[in-house]
Design goal:
With 219 residues, the chain is of the alpha/beta class. The chain has one domain. Helices cover 46% and strands 10% of the residues. The chain contains 8 helices and 5 strands. Strands 1, 2, 3, 4 and 5 form a 5-stranded mixed sheet that branches. The longest helix has 19 residues. 40% of the residues are buried.
């Protein structure tokens, strides 16, 4: 697994400035300057940035057309605004393959290719879905639970905020959430957490999301 501490959210995004919708709204959605607070936001700004970055990388590496990205972004945002979890890789694969037999293979292909574009690709852990959810951590930290649930990125394991494992089919969502969790942990506890990133296959991801987020999961 790739264990690394995250200090900031991602690199500069290769997309048009006007596509960063939601930045203006961030000042009016809960949370003062310099504080981590997402519970009162309609769609947390961290999610918007993660979505834009994922869409940019899909286009940059010829995994999706501009039209595909527009449709997928709209699908993901609609789910988020309805309080449902959603992932752009899942939505893109469904746009192409529907719910047929090719869905699993399509998701895995996109996931692998995106993972290969990161300096530290997340390790694939097929047994992660069997791990016990950190229920108490979710309950004590609703900001983090909300981000995890909407992004469909479960916390595979946790030793408080000292050591955590984040799991998903989407390496860029894991990367973005790692940065957000690091910020939250430093503000709440002063701890710089060690975060491992895990890549899941489709079946493991579905099982894990259902186990962690029983409601509001658009799978």
């Amino acid at each position: 697994m790739n264990a690394h501490a995250q200090d900031a959210a991602g690199d500069e995004l290769p997309m048009e400035p006007q596509q960063l919708v939601g930045e203006e709204a961030s000042s009016s959605h809960g949370g003062g300057s310099g504080s981590f607070s997402v519970v009162n936001q309609e769609v947390p700004i961290a999610l918007e940035h993660a979505l834009i970055r994922t869409m940019a990388m899909l286009q940059q590496h010829n995994l999706a057309s501009a039209e595909d990205c527009s449709q997928v972004s709209a699908m993901v945002r609609r789910n988020w605004e309805a309080g449902k979890g959603s992932d752009p890789i899942d939505c893109l694969a469904r746009l192409r393959a529907g719910d047929g037999e090719m869905l699993d293979a399509s998701i895995d292909m996109i996931s692998v290719k995106l993972a290969q574009t990161l300096p530290l690709p997340p390790t694939r852990v097929p047994f992660a879905g069997k791990l016990i959810p950190p229920t108490s951590l979710y309950e004590k930290n609703p900001d983090i639970e909300l981000l995890c649930r909407l992004m469909l990125v479960p916390i595979a394991y946790a030793e408080d905020f000292d050591v955590l494992g984040l799991a998903s089919i989407n390496p860029y969502f894991v990367d973005a959430l790692s940065a957000a969790v690091t910020q939250y942990a430093k503000e709440q506890t002063g701890i710089q957490p060690i975060i491992s990133t895990i890549r899941l296959d489709y079946v493991g991801w579905v099982k894990m999301c259902k186990k962690h987020f029983r409601e509001g999961v658009a799978l």
